[in-house]
Design goal:
The chain is mainly alpha-helical and 185 residues long. It is built from 9 helices and no strands. Helix 3 packs across helix 5, helix 3 runs antiparallel to helix 8 and helix 4 packs across helix 5. It is globular. The relative contact order is 0.14.
Length: 185
């Protein structure tokens, strides 16, 4: 088993395990994301802006976002079903409409991230954020959430340069080796 498979398996298990939680704990997780994680993002943005920081290894237009990936997963999951609302449905294609972004960014994390990009990047959205622009053509938020999660698993959690900084232990075991080493025999 390679490192990517072991990390993906553990990461998937951690995410899948939350579906078995009682409703009060799930509500607590939502609060954690929508309040605490959002405050963390605001702090990151303030530091990035104040010190004109640029991400190391940025993929530019080929990356989802120069700094963050999780807010798109959380934001898309927050919007699941919003495209089916009878009154004022919120569609993925609305991320290309500056008025819709401004109208929704105070309430939805996905639109908050798009607003941040619009404020900090110059030029047409489809040129500087090609992945997000392409994703906006998908018709429902649930598919976007699943796709974002798969992208995060492959592009973030599956990269050794990222996970090498994780502190592995009881909660997140490192399953690099599946057979005992010669020294153990």
């Amino acid at each position: 088993m390679c490192i990517r498979d072991s990390i993906n398996a553990e990461y998937g298990k951690l995410v899948a395990d939350h579906t078995e939680l009682p409703p009060p704990m799930v509500a607590g997780l939502k609060d954690l994301v929508l309040v605490v994680f959002k405050d963390y993002l605001d702090l990151c943005r303030m530091i990035q802006s104040r010190y004109c920081l640029e991400p190391a290894g940025s993929k530019g237009v080929y990356g989802l976002d120069d700094y963050h990936h999780l807010p798109y997963i959380f934001g898309a999951s927050q919007l699941e079903g919003a495209e089916k609302q009878k009154e004022d449905p919120i569609l993925p294609k609305h991320i290309t409409d500056a008025n819709k972004v401004d109208a929704h960014r105070g309430r939805y994390m996905y639109f908050e991230m798009i607003g941040w990009i619009n404020e900090n990047k110059k030029g047409p959205f489809h040129e500087h954020s090609t992945i997000l622009y392409n994703i906006s053509g998908i018709d429902d938020w649930e598919r976007i959430t699943r796709g974002m999660f798969k992208m995060h698993t492959g592009e973030v959690m599956g990269k050794f340069v990222v996970i090498q900084h994780f502190l592995f232990g009881k909660t997140l075991p490192c399953l690099l080796y599946t057979s005992p080493s010669p020294r153990d025999s």
